[in-house]
Amino acid sequence: MLRNFVTGKFSVVSDVDTKITANTDDAQQVLGLDQVSGKNVALHCHPQNLIKWAVELDGLASSVLLVPFDACGAFSKRAEEKLDLDVVLTDGMTSTGHWTTKVSGFRADSGSQEATSSLGRRKTQWLLITSGTTGTPKVVAHTLESLTRTTAKSGAGSQLTWGLLYDPARFAGFQVVLQAMMSNAKLVVPSPDLDFEKKIDFLVANGCDALSATPSLWRKILMAKAARQLHLKQVTLGGEIADQRILNSLAKQYPSAAVTHIFASTEAGVGFSVKDKKAGFPLSWLDSGARGVEMRISDQGTLCLKNTHLNQNYLGGGSIASTDGWIDTGDLVEVDGDRVLFKGRLNGAINIGGNKVIPEDVEARILEVPGVFQVAVRSKSSSIAGALVEALVVPDPELDNPSGLVKSVKQHCKQVLPSFKVPAFVRLVDELPVGSAGKIKR
User: Fold this and answer.
1) What is each CA distance from 386 to 352, 353, 383, in whole angstroms?
2) CA separation, residue 290 to residues 286, 308, 319 (Å)
3) What 3-state DSSP class applies to 65?
């Protein structure tokens, strides 16, 4: 149970007071621990309360759905269609009027110690919804064991101060929470509605020295004014392709930090991690595997994993693994020398006149152009061609005159890419559209 890992060393620092407001329009009453025992619960509240309440509910509730802070009516409708929820617990700091399930406040300390200890303990199911970046979101049921299989539970990790830029209701965010909790570290949680620059300022002010983010978020962090004031000991990447350029940039900016690229998903859990500061992973892992996870490349060129520790499943039908235990991640990979490199999502391809264009493949070539700091390639609808390739380019902040960058990008792409992959549109932007999970929105 989570409470077994919580000691006085684990603490959560937030920039707001998260006292529960019981008299909200949404909350019907304030429940105690005994009233949620054995129930199917949804947590829709401020991140700090979500973390605090998760500790109390593990082993007590039958299942707990983690609801993103900014969840809308479409989310609640999808969740209520798939799940038999008994109650939505809130703190009055989120909009919960779109739930048809009973909404209540919650006080984890509202029951006596004697009553709490006599409630009995069970294996709680942790329910997370996939990001849905390339398909219909699904509900995945985890156990605490599947969520913490690779989490360090002691040692030097207790000396770290983790920063949380992800929503803890998402898989990547909950992983950071569990890592801090189980290593008895400090966790710094800026409010989700803070301006991004102020979030980084808050991390700096509270001594954050360990941080996890997608490559897209890391590029945004590196552009923040306070980035150089972060004295990081641990840099973790996940959620997107960690190319050599971003790995080199992070190693240069934070020379004392360990740099870890994690391959994980809501469905598969944590598959493996790479710590050699090189893109992709060693080719030898296709034969040897890594930490109990076998790997192979499918006929379609996608990475498949066979996790001997897998015990999570989809709710509402559908199997995560095939009958022989393999999970097709949908991530395209290719062998390059002694490395296996990620190329992009198979179902994220753009169809251009019958030809498939992998956005990440085009992005990698555009990043070769001097003066390009960040790029996102996506489909742009066309009444004549159906779809065309569009590139959104963020110029390097140190570039004196970015006006000629559009021409340079187009010329380079024509030289190194087949004509159907060459972007028809190249636009300079101040920043890329990034979703709540920290991934580029295409």
Assistant:
1) 8, 8, 6
2) 9, 11, 23
3) strand
CB 104 within 8 A of CB 29: yes
Domains recognised in the chain with CATH numbers: 2-146 (3.40.50), 194-345 (3.40.50.12780), 349-428 (3.30.300.30)
Q: How far apart are CA 50 and CA 168, in angstroms?
A: 8
Round to whole Å and give the CA distance between 328 and 322: 8
Could you give phi then psi for residue 78, rounded to 5 degrees? -65, -40
- Write the DSSP symbol of residue 176: H
Angle at 104 between CA 145 and CA 46, to 5 degrees: 60
pLDDT, tens digit, for every residue of 29-59? 888 888 999 999 999 999 999 999 999 999 9
Q: Tell whether the model's pLDDT for residue 298 goes beyond 60.
A: yes
Which tens digit of pLDDT belongs to each residue from 404-442?
999 999 999 999 999 999 999 999 999 888 877 788 877
Residue with tokens 């000991």: 233
Contact 434, 220 (CB under 8 A): yes
Q: What is the pLDDT of residues 231-270, one digit of tens each?
A: 999 999 998 999 999 999 999 999 999 999 998 766 666 6
Tokens representing 251 are 């190693």
SS (H, E, C) 344-378: EEHHHCEEECCEEECHHHHHHHHCCCCCEEEEEEE
Mean pLDDT estimate for the chain:
85
Q: Torsion angle of alpha carbons 287, 290, 291, 297, nearest 10°?
A: -80
Q: Name 161's Cβ contacts closer than 8 Å, sequence gap at least 6.
A: 185, 186, 187, 188, 206, 207, 208, 209, 210
Mention every residue, 6+ apart, whose C-beta is less than 8 A from residue 225.
Answer: 197, 200
- Write the DSSP assignment of 115-159 as a string of letters: HHHTS----PEEEEE---SSS---EEEE-HHHHSTT---SGGGGG
